[in-house]
Amino acid sequence: MIGSSLSKWTMSYFAIAVGWLVAAEALMAGGFGFPVADLTSPDTLVIVHMVCIGWLSMAMCGALFQFVPVLVNNRLFAERWQLPALMLLALGLPVLIAAFMVLGGRLPAWLWLFPLAAGLLMAGFALVVIDLGLTIWRARPPVGPAHFVLAGLVCLCAVVALGSVFAWSLSGRGGEALDRLLGSGVPLHAIAGLGGWLTLTAMGVSYRLLSMFMLAPDIDGRRSGLTLAAGAFASALAVAGGLCAIAAQEGMAIMLGAAAVLGLAALALYGRDVVALYRSRKRRQLELNTEMAAYGFASLAAAALLGIALALTGSFAAHVGAFTFLVAFGWLSRLVLALQDRRVPHLARDLRPGDGARTDAACAGPRRRAARVEVVRRLLRQRLVRNRGSAFRTRPRVPRHRPHHDRDDDWHRSRVDPDATPHRRGTEAATAEWNADAATAVFAKLNHREEDHP
Predict the structure, then answer these.
(1) Are 282 and 214 in contact (CB under 8 A)?
(2) What is the band of 443 on the pLDDT scale with cuts at 50, 70, 90?
């Protein structure tokens, strides 16, 4: 973490992402898109891309700009690229939504919106991929979780490439090959996005952050490497094998079935590692963000079981909407919200206006003074808990008939060693009760000071 800088645009990514989430949920609550409309209708495509690009991808990009420097212990390759990428993504998604509304007949037939949206989104994601990829590549050799992010970025490239091909085909500028890819390649687009880009990246980030938040030892690199190999190979088999199957016009079911088996193996290995992190944690009392992440992991397990049940009963195609909803909102959204719950308060405190242009995320500076005080307060709280029985002693009552110089000597001895004076106040039970009350008062005072000096 030393040497990593605070991303001043991460909060903007998070704010825009939350706005798209609220908008998508409001439209769904109003009966727009799935499940009121068909799963392949233009209205449903609007909701899907609002959630996957506007909410999940936007939030993930903002989080990666903050967490990748922490993962590789190095600064971003080009910190100035964050704002152009944000502007391109924020502009490209509304254009794409307008293009889908053209397909639904809600807007005039402006088919040129599809190539425009594809160009804007491709440029925005290209800046994100290059910036994050070169940041990881410069920190050779990258640590285990960083490999997950690299695999996720490769899947993001596949998602953007397939989406651009679909956009050109929908605009009427594609040939027969592109039309055939549009007709059969939508599942590959979804797998590369939800299963590759978002899930693999979330896995890598969670490995590092769970160990940090819960004070747990890091997972062995060989174990996490096996999980990464299974997940990356599953995504590659689904996308590359699926494209080969589309070109050969046969074998799609076999490729997707093999990829599903590898994906389930990757999820099982990942679940084993997550359980090991929770069991080996030193922080016994879970914070809110780690509790939220636990519900996300439970949703991931539920989605895997649901997928198995639907595949065995042959009804996966009929209920793919429920499966996708559980993955997007149960697993990914809960994990993203858990990350935001942890990081947004810290970023809002550290990125106060007027504190300068750049800062180090782990060193002293105007923006980190509060964090350094916070560390001292945590240490003080631990000491209070550890020494509760002896740290808070009352001033002993000195009999009035004793000379003043004896009282002063006794008082000085008690200041140096609370156990040196034989004069106690009340019984041991009363002393313990007073100590507990004193510790509670000190905790409240520390929290009050922390609120006054964020």
Answers:
(1) yes
(2) low
**pLDDT (average), residues 312-330:** 90
Domain boundaries, the chain: 10-350, 366-452
Beta bridge partners of 360: 5
CA distance 239 to 289: 33
For CA atoms 420, 424, 425, 431, give the dihedral sign: positive
Which CATH fold would you assign to the domain 10-350?
Cytochrome C Oxidase; Chain A (1.20.210)
Please give the Cα distance from 269 to 301 (Å, whole number): 12
CA dihedral 231, 234, 240, 242 (to 10 degrees): -140
Q: What is the pLDDT of residues 56-87, one digit of tens each?
A: 999 999 989 988 888 888 888 888 899 999 99
Locate tokens 């002896």: which residue?
A: 390
**What pTM, to 2 d.p., does this model score?**
0.74
Rounded-to-integer distance, Cα 27 and Cα 101, Å = 14
Rounded Cα distance between 370 and 158, Å, is: 42
DSSP 194-252: IIIIIHHHHHHHHHHHHHHHTT-PPPPHHHHHHHHHHHHHHHHIIIIIHHHHHHHT--H
Helices (H) and strands (E) in the chain, counts: 19, 0
DSSP states of 26-56 as a string? HHHHTT-STTTS-TTSHHHHHHHHIIIIIII
Amino acid at 72: V
Q: How far apart are CA 316 and CA 331, in angstroms?
A: 19
Instruction: Judge residue 388's burial from the number of C-beta atoms within 10 Å of its C-beta, 0-12 exposed, 13-18 middle, 19 or more buried.
Output: middle
Max CA separation in the chain (angstroms): 108
Q: Which residue has the tokens 């093999």?
A: 258
CB distance 191 to 239 below 8 Å: yes
